[in-house]
């Protein structure tokens, strides 16, 4: 079934093999028509023998009479551009035998394939498409390979006469020293006189062809290391023999000046100048023949001069010389003057030789005036004139060019250059224009102006529906979707493609449209995808019960209600289904929403599409767009990158696929949203959001609900039995924090003591101005058993600390955030449950003594001074013979990222965290554990961790987590009680669960995953963010590496779950382990290289070794 016409200006479709074969068969049917064959025969009889050029043109027009009918059925334009796109889309199938057979049949039908024993047909028309050439004697021939786009670039290679196209490409790659030519290059032939090409099959014979074209590579320049590679003997000229076998030489400034002087002398020769003038008389300037002959003439001098400086005396040597002319040479006036002289001698400088003079300012700068500058493309010779001030810089000229062409990319990508000794060297952006009135540019394909956008046809606004019309539309859609034929095709679709796959989603959308395009026009909407979106926008205004019930029925009919509640909105594309179901949240959420709506705002729960954890509660105006929801989330978290990189999405199917929502779309009745594009929805460190009244009340109600939960109250009652013991206050603070750490991140605060302090200060402002906050605070105090402290003047006996008490306070922010330091309580604070403290200078080289007022009691804990007996037990060597040995306890150390890895160590019960770490290092026989490892504890369910201080006691803990190590594997020869993952708690900490081993992959699965990753990494939005990252941070810096890893994960998190891996850093690690088995497989390694290129991880050869680990990581 055809794909339908491609939208004007849209990307050409990608074809499957079956679609490509179907297209070939349609062309075969059209070209086989009697009327077509009759007209083709008439062309042969009238023009082929008399005017071959005109014959080619007319034949191409005749071909297009069939192509313009066939191509649109398969998604291509019915134009020459569409033919070119079709040929590009055919390229992946050249190895298919059936595809080659059909191609051969097409060529025979069109008279483009030679009969056995006849001379070959013209190459430009596509001779021998898939037909083997007759065998030739075993001899070598020279083949010229030209770049299909820039025909000035060509390379001669020597190959056996019976070579295949693949062997020609291999010879070219070897000669240039560039493996990418073999992998990416495609040998092609011209189709007619247009710029269309069709690929040769790798297995096709060279035959009598001695000129070939290549596409798929930027140029045919040799690799810098190519001089060290052996070249075929027949291709090496005499000048090559003079070049050294090692890599191309480097030049210092004096050597570069000497080379320029020798070239000036050669190009100044009267005979050379005479031949150069004659060349302009014989060939049209700018023509292909003129360029070729001029290059040969230049080489007559370069071939003599270059070998004196260690370069080959050929085109390869010219490229090496250009590379050896380093940019820093441009600071030399003599180097620049020599370059200008060479350009004038060769007729390459259009400014009349004034470039050098431009570097010398006049004694008294003239008043700025507007001047006209001719900007010419260095390759295509296209020219554009721009007007700029006489004082303009090179950068300003480039900006003016971009503006004149209406192409913003010109300002970013174009480089202004000048010719120097036959080479092109860049001008700096800060260089003054001076007396130059013509400039050369490279870096962009052409200098064509962007076509002014045609005024779109006037279109009526989306129709407005009454409630009755909206309900009628839903009923009509329901009738169409309930048809037996539709339901049968839907079932077949589910059998043909896995639910949630890309193919399933695309085909299902097409199937939906078969009904929608009939129904929607009855109500004034277009019968296409655009009309579907317009319908959704109109139906979003209806939220009553009957409308929602109809939407649910539609979703049920289409199988969309089988997904999780958050996916219910997926029914909307089919015809205004139910809004996303809102999961139960914190207590008082309904109250909070009513409060917000009364103030003209609504609360939206934003969840991360891939991660777990609580939703972020953002407040936006009624009628806000989805883009405003995203911006509100970014502001609440204090993370601007959420607004830049985040995307609001909806689930598609059951396999973890997502579809982006438009930012301009209205929120409508949605009260929840999914977001992806960032790693998590955790607040920025130290974030202190400003909450409105409705949000602040919602936060307090959520805390009240958490504290009122039966589980929390049960644990609190159990803890009350230990009241009066030293650990009571600390354990109660941990219990309270277990609720706060889950609630606070939903409102933009960190789920740690620092976040508690920021929240308390925010609520203080509301409490003093609004009695409702005070009432909620009192209710929370009762729930926590702190009712007496909620009074304005709490009783002294209700306080946790008395004046003079020895305590510890947690550092809320800064580089040591989370650490506990000593303090002394000096008295009660001004607010309920707060204290004034004194922090001593201990140790004096780190701490400065200071007093702090109004510190919340939750940030304090009693200082534990271990009994002497415990201190002795902690150091058994000092207590040898001093009584019973210390009691040993088993402690499980679990990897914080890969929770399947655990190790058990035995330590004295009174050990510090430092001693636990020492025991782990000894058991694993890995000294780096002491330097790199950090023992940590989880903070809530958000995936955040807080470090233990080395001096902190183990206490009653029998499980700690470790970070800073890749794994917990013992060193070779070490033995220890490594614990298997079977008893490890699941990711949510919800009891024992057997952790599944990471999946193993076949080679086909591994390569399929590589292709999916390559598709994601090649997307323009990803590449744009990657380029921006290089601009924002110094490559190689810690910040750069962190941000880049996050960016990689935006693609990996989507692809990995489709192959059974978690969509996080742990899954990336598992994927790397699973893929390591296929290193050395040629196709696998080639895909790996393409991935590295897409991610910018492929470095110049000198840096490859240093970057190998980085490439492996990505």
TrEMBL record:
Membrane-traversing stretches: none
Region feature (Disordered): 113-138, 223-250, 568-601, 976-995
Domain of life: Eukaryota
Compositionally biased intervals (Low complexity): 122-133, 223-249, 579-589, 976-985
Extent of Acidic residues compositional bias: 590-601
Protein name, as recorded: Protein C10
